[in-house]
Write a structure and sequence with these properties.
Elements: H1 5-12, H2 20-38, E1 45-52, E2 56-58, E3 64-79, E4 85-89, E5 93-98, E6 103-108, H3 109-112, H4 115-125, E7 131-133, E8 148-149, E9 152-158, E10 163-165, E11 170-173, H5 178-184, E12 192-199, H6 208-226, E13 230-231, E14 234-235, E15 242-245, E16 248-251, H7 266-270, H8 274-277
Antiparallel strand pairs: 1-12, 2-11, 3-7, 3-9, 3-12, 4-5, 4-8, 5-6, 10-11, 13-14, 15-16
Helix pairs in contact: 1-6, 2-6
Length: about 280
């Protein structure tokens, strides 16, 4: 979580409990808007990524807290060619599509668990289909299987090569291990590497600058919905929106024209703080 109620109050100086429920209910909404702008997620959690092999891998999420698994792509099983059927591996299971009837039968990892169990379930349900498992991959964790279509089922096998976390976003391989990939990996599958890593911030570790922006946006929302006055120079709901004096007409542009949360454009409020967030925007290298 990007911010706690107590942190909001410490940053803004608000002591009343009047808005506690509103603040707690909208922290996640503000976090989503900030994460969209930053192009990265902030909460510490596990991430699973396939990356093209390089001596230096750049993760999508950061800062990296721990590296849990590095694997290289490997053929693990193959469906025997059978006219009229196509196959698809997804994040939740294996789909067998009967092209004659346009029907899809899904075999869920959550039900079967391993490739061996999936083989048994698929062949029992559709006798025309045979799945042959290579080597000892029958007990492979489904998280390690590669999504894709075709008769070959690919997955990741643990890579016992030297690697290290270089900084908060990059993982390095020793260049002397290049030969390992090009001598043992299936070049036709584009030499893919699988990463399982934990990245992001615990609530207490979210950078102070991001917390301040989140608190200020929440404060803007409170002022717009419940208070009079202005927010960053913009008149709040309930104020005069237009005024005509003689030949002169003045119209004030409200962020919200009513006391309805749905009328607040949070992304518009964030524009006031984009410069403050720039140090944490995901950089593409």
């Amino acid at each position: 979580m990007i911010l706690t109620l107590s942190e909001f109050k410490a940053i803004t100086g608000i002591t009343t409990n009047t808005y506690d429920s509103f603040i707690n209910a909208n922290i996640s909404t503000v976090q989503n808007v900030i994460e969209t702008y930053l192009d990265r997620l902030l909460d510490a959690q596990d991430y699973y990524e396939w990356k093209p092999y390089s001596t230096q891998l750049l993760t999508e999420q950061y800062p990296i807290n721990s590296l849990k698994f590095i694997g290289c792509i490997q053929k693990m099983a193959e469906f025997t060619p059978q006219a009229g059927y196509t196959y698809e591996v997804t994040s939740t299971g294996i789909n067998v599509i009967d092209e004659a009837t346009f029907t899809t039968t899904t075999f869920l990892f959550s039900v079967s668990g391993t490739l061996t169990a999936l083989k048994t379930a698929i062949e029992a349900a559709i006798p025309a289909v045979t799945l042959t498992i290579d080597g000892t991959y029958g007990t492979t964790n489904y998280r390690l299987l590669r999504s894709g279509t075709g008769k070959v089922v690919y997955g990741a096998t643990r890579l016992d090569a030297a690697s290290q976390i270089n900084d908060n976003r990059t993982i390095d391989f020793l260049q002397s291990f290049d030969f390992l990939f090009y001598s043992t990996m299936d070049i036709g599958s584009n030499a893919q590497i699988y990463l399982v890593y934990n990245a992001g911030y615990a609530t207490a570790d979210v950078p102070k600058g991001i917390k301040i922006v989140a608190a200020n946006i929440l404060l803007d929302m409170i002022n717009i919905l419940f208070n009079s006055g202005t927010t960053n120079g913009v008149p709040n709901a309930g104020n005069i929106k237009s005024e005509t004096v003689g030949d002169h007409s003045i119209t004030y542009a409200n962020v919200s024209d009513s006391n309805s949360l749905s009328s607040i454009k949070i992304a518009k409020l964030l524009e006031n703080y984009e410069g403050d967030l720039w140090p944490w925007v995901k950089k593409i290298i």
